[in-house]
Amino acid sequence: MAEKVFSQAELAQYDGSDGKKAYVAIDGVVYDVSDVDAWQGGKHHGQTAGKDLSQIIVKAPHKKSVLGKLPVVGKYAG
């Protein structure tokens, strides 16, 4: 199966609301944060899933160290 490439509009559909999956894009890679307790409901420290958070994650205390634990679901084309 070919790797899924998400547009901005497609990624926005995965915002974690109403039981939907919660995906975030970081540096062109789309991660599934649905099973991360801190991302319940698609929200985490004022951020919302379904977006490119590349500029935001570098300001977080954990930076990119958490990404290795997350399932990769595709690429982000923006």
Automatic annotation (TrEMBL):
Gene3D superfamilies: Cytochrome b5-like heme/steroid binding domain
SMART domains to which the protein is assigned, alphabetical: Cyt-b5
Domain Cytochrome b5 heme-binding: 6-77
Matches recorded under InterPro entries: Cyt_B5-like_heme/steroid-bd, Cyt_B5-like_heme/steroid_sf
Designated name of the protein: Cytochrome b5 heme-binding domain-containing protein
